[in-house]
Automatic annotation (TrEMBL):
Membrane topology label: Multi-pass membrane protein
Pfam families the record matches: HTTM
Transmembrane segments: 40-67, 109-128, 165-185, 214-231
GO CC aspect terms: endomembrane system
InterPro entries in the record: HTTM-like, HTTM_dom
Domain spans labelled HTTM-like: 1-229
Protein name: HTTM-like domain-containing protein
Keywords, alphabetical: Membrane, Transmembrane, Transmembrane helix
This protein's record includes keyword Iron: no
Location of the protein in the cell: Endomembrane system
Amino acid sequence: MSLDSAARLTEALLALALIQQSLEHLAGPRRDRPLFWGRITLCGLVIIGAGAAWPVVGLIGLLGLAIVSLPILDRFQGPYNGGSDRMGLLALWCLVLSRVMPGQALQELVFAYLGLQLMLSYFISGWVKVVNPDWRNGRALADVFRFSAYPVSEDLRRWAGRPQLLQVMAWGVMLFELTFPLTLLSRESLIVGLVVAATFHLANAWLFGLNRFFWTWLAVYPAILWLQDRLF
């Protein structure tokens, strides 16, 4: 996978993820709607630029999204949806820089940084969990099901009463996240790792409504696929 094709795919997927987020805001306060309608329009330019031989159109869209991200950050006093917004902003600015940096080497460096951050997002998440005794004994995962602020069913909350199963699930998540960097050793193992990771995000979207994580992380997968191909 070439740098250009990986970047274009990441741009298109990120634009779709941002459209999904923006559509949620259109049902919110009226004063926010022009901002998010503007973001949807810019995402359209990015998709057009990524899918056609019009890189200037895509670059205009990316630069516009980068500019629009600033008043959105000010409006919500930071990344209002936690990790998914941080990853989205990281991807956006890395894509912008990879387009405007002079020279292939700097462009590759910026895009590689995005792929590296994706890998670290899993590993660091696993490390934070494994050093926490509540995660090792399954109590933390039980609390997720028992006290979730998200609108989950009562049947799902009853999972909190199955400590042995939750401990196995917790260790499964931690071991996968901690060993994720090893998937970079081959193309096949990375694809398997990304399928497992995407399934994990999809399960969280289905169970807890965390749909933004699924689309945002999926958008960055081309970066790590390109990085693996570049390194090995």
